[in-house]
Request: fold
Amino acid sequence: TQLLEQSPQFLSIQEGENLTVYCNSSSVFSSLQWYRQEPGEGPVLLVTVVTGGEVKKLKRLTFQFGDARKDSSLHITAAQPGDTGLYLCAGPIIQGAQKLVFGQGTRLTINP
Amino acid sequence: ETGVTQTPRHLVMGMTNKKSLKCEQHLGHNAMYWYKQSAKKPLELMFVYNFKEQTENNSVPSRFSPECPNSSHLFLHLHTLQPEDSALYLCASSQDSGYTDTQYFGPGTRLTVL
Reply:
């Protein structure tokens, strides 16, 4: 059982369309992070949301943290081919020591 | 060089080989991490080092042996691996090992075990 479930696992859309990907858990998280990983590279942190209900915007990307701090969403407006990549959500847990747990990711392809 | 670098970028090895992965960070961070990224599983934390001391071993088999000679360098020594160990191995660093500190990832080493 994964602590963080991401959906959909795969998404392929045309340039200019809007999309939303989700990160859900049955556990409460103090914060959630979103990363983008491009082929041949490591994940790069996009944003951290820390307050229930918080909305953060990064150009055409809008991130929201659920009111109960169990879920988060990433909405992309007018997707572009440069948005193609693996989107990962991650949250901190304490299992002995503090660590980040990751969802399995959403692989997004934007077709020109 | 800036950020987090990893070498080699690709590695193919037999089950009886011994090899090492290298990670170097140029960010002045105190914590370094090894992660495993498989095709069908989420990114998994393997080891954490803080100020050269190992603070986390996430039940990793002994055929993986980490070494952290200083805060800037991290190695993962590999021996008698199994085909299921084939994966992308990612190194990361952060200012300290608290989970609020942003982790910066290297590009990874793509490992194939034959």
